[in-house]
Automatic annotation (TrEMBL):
Protein name: VOC family protein
InterPro entries to which the protein is assigned, alphabetical: Anthracycline_SecMetBiosynth, Glyas_Bleomycin-R_OHBP_Dase, VOC_core
Gene3D superfamilies linked to this entry: 2,3-Dihydroxybiphenyl 1,2-Dioxygenase, domain 1 (3.10.180.10)
Annotated VOC domain residues: 7-124
PANTHER family in the cross-refs: GLYOXALASE (PTHR33993:SF5), GLYOXALASE-RELATED (PTHR33993)
Amino acid sequence: MEKRVIGIGGIFFKSEDTDALRSWYNKHLGIESESWGGVFEWRRKDNPDDVTYTAWSVFKKETKYLDPSKKDFMVNYQVENLLDLMAALKEEGVTIVGDMEESEFGKFAWILDPEGNKIELWEAPKNIQ
């Protein structure tokens, strides 16, 4: 089987008080973030010249971004060829949520695992990989 996921693209979770929680993570764990979140920079083991990022974001409890999942978190997995992967996942019967989106931040698509956890798949734009 070809490699599909190459890393963790982001960790997103809900909070009752986003400012207080971001402050706690900064004070006790040294995670710096702004209102939208923060990033960890890393290099790929199989290609050390490629610099990429893992996002870390705290969302307001009432966010709809994680819907239709009932969970308070979502993991974003970084992939290399999102278009081909989504075609394969569709053929395999995986539940797809919404339409793929593309922006200056890359390509994004969403699926559900068998337990209803929403998963975000991300192909980074070529300028940051």
